[in-house]
Amino acid sequence: MERRRNKRWHGKYRMLLMAAVIGLTTVLAACSGTSKGGSEGGGAGSGGAPQGRVTLKVEVFDRGNAPSGMKINDNYLTRYVQENFGDPNNINVEFVPIPRSEEIQKLNVLMASANDVPDIIFTYDTGTYNRYASQGGLMDVTELLDEYGPNLKAFLGEDTLKYGQIDGKQFAIPGRRLVLGKYASYIRQDWLDKLGMSAPQTTDELYAALKAFKERDPGDTGGKVIPLGMSVAPAQFEPLLWSFIEPLTEEQRYTLTQKLGSSDHPVLLPGFKEGLRFMNKLYNEGLISKDFALDKDKKQLWQDVQNGLVGAYSEDAGELYFEYNGTYKNLLTNVPGSSLTPIDPYTDSEGKHPKPGYAPNAMYIMIPKSSERAAEAIKYLDWMASGDHLFFMQNGVEGENYELEDGIPVLKADAPQDVKDRLYNYGDMAIIVNGKYMGETEKNNEAYIRQTPKEFHDVMRVSVNISNSDKIDPVVLPRPIEAEARYGSALADKYDELIVMTTMVAPDKFDATYESIMKEYMAAGGQAILDERTKLYEESQ
Amino acid sequence: MKPQMYLGRYWQLYGLVALPIVYFIVFKYGPMYGVQIAFKDFNLFQGIHGSEWIGFEAFGEVFRNQEFFKTLRNTLMLNFLDLIVSFPAPLVLAIMLYELKSGWFRKFSQTVLYVPHFISWVIIGGIVYQVFGTQSGMINNVLTGLGLREIPFLTEKGNWLATYLATGVWQSAGWGTILYLAALTGINRELFEAAEVDGAGRFKRIWHITLPGLKTTIVTLLIINLGHIITIGFERPYVIGNLAVREYSDVLSTFVYRVGLESGQYTLATVVGLFQAVVGLVFVLGANFISKKLTDESIL
Q1: Which residue of A23, A56, A259, B171 has the smallest Cβ count within 10 Å?
Q2: Counting one residue from A and one from B, how many pairs have CB atoms under 8 Å apart?
Q3: Matching CATH topology for A54-179+360-435 and A185-356+471-540?
């Protein structure tokens, strides 16, 4: 008892100290959490707002590639917007970053909270836009557009605006897409030369080239050669699969196409199974990388191309030439004497090279119903579409970022890095258009081509021409298909699973695997979409 | 003693536990009102109150969905196998470490062993791909260099399962040993000395003294793990899994992610979540009950 009384002081203090430390730590942790979040958003012009000034929140895609010294919500272009649009109109423009790879998930979460959601949001995913519209979450901007957006309306045109209308009401402002070609294919010219073969112009010729790459290894890879580059991104397998689709009647195209997400999928079209069978053949003969199914973002494919292992592959037309990509540049550096030639090898039964193209609309720009800044939002988009604002955002300063050649801005290759970095994400800032806007189609295409470094302009032009030849346009329906909005994302996953599983299975198990996964696909919503589209077709007759 | 007297005398202890209690109330009990979403046709913009009541209709839709049963099966299977493989591992490691004579080597091993616990699954996924990939993975490069056939660790279902479980052991075993080692220090050293004098060998000592001394800890952890058998983390199956092994790697958490967050079908996702909670509760109570009857140890 005596001992306890003496030690009581120490014991008491120790307990007190512990409790205080724990309390303090918790408070500090909570504070640092919120202040971190606060400072991120407060970069561009918060604090000390003058009288009557309002804040307009605009979404921006965060690809995690901000150059040093710049933040996604505080950089050259955000300051340009604030100085030229925000300040004259007494508006604080705040950019809200959303990670590109999870934009839909993040958007879903933001839409649930009326306070945090930006005033301008956007997505490429048709299903998401349709869902928000049908659930009553979007503002009908028809009148606001007339009042505050005359330049915007003129810029986009009725054809583009149509994509954002439901029963005549404007629920989304679709951006205008200028470059409609999507895919081209590429092959190692130096390997062809070494083998004495010419560039393949049919599927059979491509197959022969792939076999030769594997058996004779012209690249001296020591058995590590990957004749056909492949991943689970659509760019790698769409040209192949679509070339197997048999000629369709208008009714077949209308009813059997399945629009999952924002692009048409050929899963129910006649001939698709044969396309999968061809992929199965290629895989089992060792012409496709054994790990292609793990490559969700093409990173492994690009590595393999740069390291000189890949013989041929399909890709978004011209992607490998762009500054930010560097795949081709690195290949040329790593493997002296190498070169990739653009080709269009996949031929269908009519000798054509069908491949999907883009719809003429770009992103769906939307204003949440709960937003109080709808007028300011339309004003911002209208400002972007007027004068030389769009041109500046896409091209920068004449003499510093670009020089005019034949009236088309060409990026200065020798501009200092920080000048080049000014426009690092212009595509995500200039949301009303997809592609460099010059006024006429010819010029738009040329501007697109000249975005690549000068030494690649010629092959870029060939790539763009390939992407436009035998281009398949998306099927346009008068109103959204409810089943597509509901099941689209899950079915798109199932589609990828179908391709991977049927490709990788042993040839004698191909049919059984195909049947069983197709059954799951139809049960998971494929049948519902088919039924709805068939009904819609019958109604329209 | 009257309650007020407890408060007065031990207020530091109450203060210490107040914070965790507040945490549980705010983050675990509070959100329970959101369970209603499972019974409503949830409209993001009308909120929970404004959405229409549909009763058990969504449950019907979920239980009719083939994908749901596949993910349920996978969740149980992965967790059960994990239990068999990962549960004994920390125990064995702890006993081995405890038997070590060299103090510094024990401390060094402990530190090295529990470092993987702090590596996020996203990074582990990247490492796994570099090590186990078929085309260009480290192990397969060595195999093909020796002239052997490559082993598809990640793209063949059975192999993937083994890889998944093995990485789980690597990641969690070291951390689990800490708990057991702490419990082991609570065993009276005199028991060991007495047993040694009586002629008991190392294994006999482990069997008769160490293990029984750990009985309470083992049973508690087992009950907790059994209660969690219906829940499964999201990152691990999502990152380590891939399209080729969907058959095994698709679990309830990835299903909810796809259906709930990607497709915005919150009602269905909540139904699955509620289902998991109810089943988990049944398992915890059941495991606790069985343990009480068989070994007199229980936590409730």
Answers
A1: A23
A2: 100
A3: yes
